[in-house]
UniProtKB/TrEMBL annotation:
Reactions catalysed according to its record: Hydrolyzes single-stranded DNA or mismatched double-stranded DNA and polynucleotides, releasing free uracil
Physiological role: Excises uracil residues from the DNA which can arise as a result of misincorporation of dUMP residues by DNA polymerase or due to deamination of cytosine.
GO molecular function: uracil DNA N-glycosylase activity
Protein name, entry field: Uracil-DNA glycosylase
Record-level GO cellular component terms: cytoplasm
Signal peptide from the UniProt entry: none
KW RNA-binding (keyword) present: no
Amino acid sequence: MTRLPAGLGAWSSLPFFTGHWPGLSAAIAGDPREILPPAHLRFAALELTQPQHTRVVILGQDPYPTPGHAHGLAFSAEPHVHPLPRSLSNIYKELEDDLGVTRPNADLRGWASQGVLLLNTALTVPAGEANGHKHLGWQYLVHQVLDRTSERPTAYILWGNAAQKLEKHIKPGDHLILKTAHPSPLSARRGFFGSRPFSKVNNWLAARGESGIDWNA
């Protein structure tokens, strides 16, 4: 039996881990390429943001394919990474325009600790090969995570077509669902800039009597 990743907590009850994970794990182990992020960081998004604490879900695509950058959270990178990844740089531009917040580095773990689940739609990537594990089977995990998080009111930020196609896996409910263009330089000017997602999320949380996200954390 394939051992479950440590630290999953309540996520370990998802059917993915008994159904798809053994085969997917074997496929990764059999891949001769350097796989990113390192094994101990691959489930960091789930480990840092448990389902009962998830208030916001931001969907990414796959990890940064540059060694030393990805650490298991969508859009986030290790603190030393500079210049910032281009999509993250645009996210920070929008954050500053929206709330006047300027962030010191690429590390978004402070968001994760407040209930912001930063989930990629593929949790691994071969070094230097963007989307190289797109069809490996991670989508089954992502579908189940969306199903689980939507059991209670949650804010979903769906940037770009790939993320928006996954909306069908969100159960109907009293959710906030924000859909705009992706922050990539290729598309950010087609609706991402000026969308003010950070203030919209905090306004929604406030209307529910919850504390907002400190986007500067």
